[in-house]
Design brief:
Layout lengths: L6 H7 L4 H4 L20 E10 L2 H7 L9 H7 L11 E8 L5 E13 L4 E14 L2 E18 L2 E14 L2 E18 L2 E14 L2 E15 L5 E13 L3 E13 L4 E13 L13 E12 L2 H4 L3 E13 L7 E13 L1
Parallel strand pairs: 1-2
Antiparallel strand pairs: 1-3, 2-15, 3-4, 4-5, 5-6, 6-7, 7-8, 8-9, 9-10, 10-11, 11-12, 12-13, 13-14, 14-15
Length: about 350
């Protein structure tokens, strides 16, 4: 997939309290995989590059065989196999006014089937980021074993996790986490998913406890149309208290056999003051995001595994007590292939 974010960035984007959320039943993970699909051994790699006017530069040089991505595409399409199977590699670009930056990362898992519907899932991930703001860059990695149980249209999962974050080659943070998931097919095409998680973060700037809960519904209509509805709650206690909550809506519509269009909308309110532990706190910043995306399976036309993606998000952020809102736009394009 395109535009994946570094793990640390995703963690700090929004927070949640486990004790508070364990009883909550609603948040959407859009288009969750069908319960019938078991976990599989595999891995993926990605490279996200950002810079001022980067998309325009790439478009103007696409005819040059020595342009960025041309030689990478040639080598990546050699269909090289590794022990984990065919590994997709995603390259994405995004315009940014904050200088150039790049993030190289990967995720993978190794599944060991056990008896009576149980599976042992060993997972791992890493990111290495570099930008004009620093010479040495940042790096993060995490890994851990997990256990999953499946029976009919029900799936349960439990996953511990240990992660480290380095900034300029210095240890910045160690995380110890535990997450759980529950998915069930309620009826034909309708799937409910609930997740909870809790993480203890020991960082150079202080310790904190992060937790989240989310649950929601995804519905697959005829003609491969998919809809999603959800709600999530997240909170951090300790180094920088913060509480966030909000609903989300998603839709994916196939235009042709190889082209899909998608749209999404999310609303969130964030409390960062002394009332942050109160979910009904009035002192809240708000954010609304409207997203549009397109996915094109180019390989379907040329008998190869090549996919193109494009996405644009428009956000409207309003600070508490402010009479004006700030608009932000973000866009990315990417290509995925197997090697």
């Amino acid at each position: 997939m395109v535009g994946q974010e570094p793990r640390e960035f995703r963690r700090r984007k929004s927070r949640g309290l486990t004790a508070l959320f364990a009883a909550l039943p609603l948040s959407a993970f859009p288009f969750a995989a069908a319960i019938a699909d078991p976990p599989a051994t595999g891995a993926q790699l990605y490279l996200n590059v950002s810079g001022t006017g980067l998309n325009d530069k790439l478009a103007s040089s696409s005819a040059d065989p020595d342009a960025f991505g041309a030689s990478d595409t040639a080598s990546a399409s050699s269909s090289k196999k590794i022990d984990l199977g065919s590994v997709p590699f995603t390259v994405s670009t995004a315009d940014s006014s904050g200088g150039w930056g790049a993030v190289l990362g990967g995720t993978g898992q190794y599944v060991v089937p056990l008896s009576d519907g149980f599976s042992l899932i060993n997972h791992g991930a890493f990111t290495k980021s570099q930008s004009s703001a620093g010479i040495l860059g940042d790096m993060s990695a995490d890994a851990g074993p997990g256990l999953e149980y499946r029976e009919g249209n029900l799936a349960l999962g439990l996953q511990p996790d240990v992660g480290v974050t380095l900034q300029s080659q210095a240890l910045q943070q160690i995380d110890y986490g535990l997450s759980s998931s529950l998915s069930k097919d309620l009826m034909a095409g309708l799937t409910a998913t609930t997740t909870t998680g809790y993480t203890i973060q020991n960082g150079a700037d202080g310790n904190s406890r992060l937790a989240h809960a989310s649950t929601g519904l995804s519905y697959a209509l005829p003609d491969k149309i998919k809809l999603g509805l959800g709600y999530q709650l997240e909170q951090t206690v300790g180094s920088g208290d913060q509480a966030q909550q909000g609903p989300s809506l998603t839709a994916e519509i196939p235009v042709t056999d190889s082209v899909n269009l998608g749209t999404s909308y999310s609303y969130s309110s964030t409390a960062t003051d002394s009332d942050s532990l109160d979910l009904l706190a009035r002192h809240r910043d708000t954010s609304q995001t409207l997203g549009l995306s397109a996915n094109w399976d180019v390989g379907a036309q040329i008998n190869a595994d090549v996919k193109l993606s494009a996405k644009v998000d428009v956000s409207r952020q309003t600070e508490y007590g402010s009479n004006s809102a700030q608009l932000q736009q973000a866009g990315s394009v990417g290509m995925q292939m197997k090697f």
